[in-house]
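Morning run. Coffee first, then this:
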Amino acid sequence: MTPEFFVDLATRTLHTALLLAAPPLLAGLVVGVAVSILQAITQMQEQTLVLVPKILAVALVLLLCLPWMLQVLLTFTTALFTHFPDYVR
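And here it is:
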């Protein structure tokens, strides 16, 4: 096992984690900015107003992206277990 192997495995792991985390994080960011702009326009500075739309947006994105996210995670895990004998050698 070489250092390049561990760097490659860590890179693939981080890439998969970022790929899975990006849709809900981006949805929360977009909704948060939109609500903040709306608050700035109306001068209504209620901090709890942002929370409910963000939760709903993240939940909706997770619901819509769940099959794709599970497929990405399943592909990564299958590749990890398939090459496991190479890892312990």
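The longest helix spans residues 3-42. Good start to the day.
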